[in-house]
Design goal:
The protein is of the alpha/beta class. The protein has 17 helices and 13 strands. The chain has three domains: 117 residues, Gyrase A, domain 2, CATH 3.30.1360.120; 128 residues, Four Helix Bundle (Hemerythrin (Met), subunit A) (Up-down Bundle); 195 residues, Rossmann fold (3-Layer(aba) Sandwich), CATH 3.40.50.300. Helix 6 runs antiparallel to helix 7 and helix 6 runs antiparallel to helix 16. The longest helix is centred in the middle third of the chain and has 30 residues. The structure holds guanosine-5'-triphosphate and magnesium ion (MG).
Length: 486
């Protein structure tokens, strides 16, 4: 995997027909090999960062007219000699040119091999290399911004600085080991403790940022659930501003789940409209209800919708209690608020038991129930409720804002570094564990050799993130997920 003495070639643009395709070569012989099949200027005599028109020929047979871009190492992406050939994007031409290069001594690049070389040659650290893949995969403004920030080294610089300070202490403690008999302390334990506290705080902050980082990178699974006829599908349509799901007055309309992506301020929310939850009347509906429950436990956010004009307080409380799942944030949404205060016709059962009756004798601002009803709801032990009318599209923007802020909390301010990568998260968690051991060790006055071991562990895991510490397996694992040509 880590052999980079040869010259590699791959198509850098997607397969398929297009106006232009780019074939990329990297390695010591890239320019010479390109030169050997190029009819035009002598490429070996041209300056770096120049473009040349000519043709690619296999002997006398012209394959295509092309533009050749030259990057003389180390001023290139991989820090090796790099040649990029822009040819016409016909599958036949691309294949013929790549075959010709392979005949001339290049080798087909493995997935991510260009970026791997950039890493091995010190152009990028490992977290930056990973950011390249994230940037290519980014599909929203926020995910693009986070990947770009990581690519520019925001993340690594911070960790590198911490690591260096810790290395200093590690070497002082190593020194103590050499003088073990004399019982000296070169490393000031108070200063070390202070540094460990500082690092733990930053590592902790990075760990906490993962929830949001992950939301930005992968989107937030958001389930809309509630009783049949509550208006879940109407709400989905209102949020999307499109008639996506079938709406009807018949309870049990939605049977399977419907998924659509809604982008709110740069973050993708995967909205999932579900079958209404009730004792199912037939087998298909029962499967639908089961699926709803599964979707809820797999989601990060639950938008629980109820019919404000119909539900009893008892039903409301029992729904909220039964839908609460660990790790799932719940937003409680009272739909059909347009029917509140017109509730004379809505009286079902004992009047005091209906949610709507809470509002019958109060002078609430109908347009702004979410705020005006707060104290009444609190007195009854009910959570914050967002009042909307999905049908009339009232307060949909307010709900969108609540959805957004429940995912983002207050973390997306300015240049906050966000962890988006599970590998980084795991390394940070292991760093944290090692740091806790170091602190415990200092307090418990353990011997320098044990202290030194724990510090080395922390250094190891911090180093794994930026790639100061790597194994072939780790690199293989990371770069095999890249596409070929990157
Ligand atoms: N007055 C009023 N009616 C609404 C509102 N939202 C939905 N409805 C009506 O309520 C009925 C049910 O709406 P749906 O969106 O199909 O409800 P659902 O929760 O998806 O129902 P199921 O898929 O059967 O579980 C329809 O007749 C809607 O027009 C609202 O805000 N106000
Ligand atoms: Mg529905």
């Amino acid at each position: 995997m880590t052999d980079n003495t040869d010259t590699i070639v791959a198509l850098a643009t997607p397969n398929g027909v297009g106006a232009i395709a780019v074939i990329r070569l990297s390695g010591p012989d890239a320019i010479n090999i390109a030169n050997s099949v190029f009819k035009g200027k002598d490429l070996s005599k041209q300056a770096s960062h120049t473009i040349h028109f000519g043709s690619i020929a296999d002997g006398d047979l012209i394959l295509d007219e092309v533009l050749v871009s030259l990057f003389v190492g180390p001023r290139s992406y991989t820090r090796e000699n790099v040649v990029e050939i822009s040819c016409h994007a016909s599958g036949y031409i691309i294949e013929s040119i790549i075959k010709l290069f392979i005949k001339k001594g290049t080798r087909s690049a493995k997935p991510g091999e260009f970026t791997l070389r950039a890493f091995l040659n010190g152009q990028l650290d490992l977290s930056q290399a990973e950011a390249v893949a994230d940037l290519i995969a980014s599909n929203s403004k926020a995910s693009q911004q986070v990947a770009l920030q990581q690519l520019r080294g925001g993340f690594s610089t911070q960790l590198q600085a911490l690591r260096e300070q810790l290395v200093n202490f590690a070497s002082l403690i190593e020194l103590e080991l050499d003088f073990a008999e004399e019982d000296v302390e070169f490393a000031n334990r108070d200063q070390l403790k202070q540094l460990i506290h500082e690092i733990t705080k930053i590592v902790g902050r990075l760990i906490n940022s993962f929830e949001l980082g992950n939301a930005i990178k992968n989107g937030v699974n958001t389930v809309i659930a509630g009783k049949p006829n509550a208006g879940k599908s109407t709400l989905l349509n209102a949020l999307l501003n499109e008639e996506r799901a079938i709406v009807s007055h018949i309870p049990g309309t939605t049977r399977d789940t419907i998924e659509e992506v809604l982008n709110i301020q740069g973050i993708n929310f995967r909205l999932i409209d579900t079958a209404g939850i009730r004792e199912a009347t037939d087998a298909i509906e029962q499967i639908g209800v089961q699926r709803t429950m599964e979707k809820i436990s797999q989601s990060a956010l639950l938008v629980y919708v109820f019919d404000a004009a119909k539900i009893t307080i008892e039903e409301l409380n029992s729904d909220i209690a039964s839908l609460q799942k660990p790790g799932v944030t719940m937003l409680v949404v009272a739909n059909k608020a347009d029917l509140l205060n017109k509730s004379d016709s809505q009286k079902v059962g004992k009047p005091e038991k209906n949610f709507a009756d809470l509002f019958a004798n109060h002078d609430f601002d109908e347009q702004d129930l979410s705020t005006s009803a707060t104290s009444l709801l609190q007195a009854l032990g009910l959570p914050d409720i967002i009042f909307i009318s999905a049908k009339e599209k009232h307060h949909i923007d307010e709900l969108k804002h609540k959805i957004y802020s429940s995912a983002v909390k207050d973390q997306l301010s300015g240049d906050e570094t966000l962890v988006t990568n599970i590998r980084h998260l795991e390394a940070l968690q292991k760093t944290e564990e090692a740091l806790v051991r170091v602190l415990g060790g200092i307090d418990g006055s353990i011997t320098s050799d044990f202290l030194s071991m724990d510090i080395k562990q922390a250094l190891h895991y911090l180093g794994e993130i930026t790639g100061v510490v790597t194994t072939d397996d780790l690199l293989e694992n990371i770069f095999s997920k890249f596409c070929i040509g990157k």
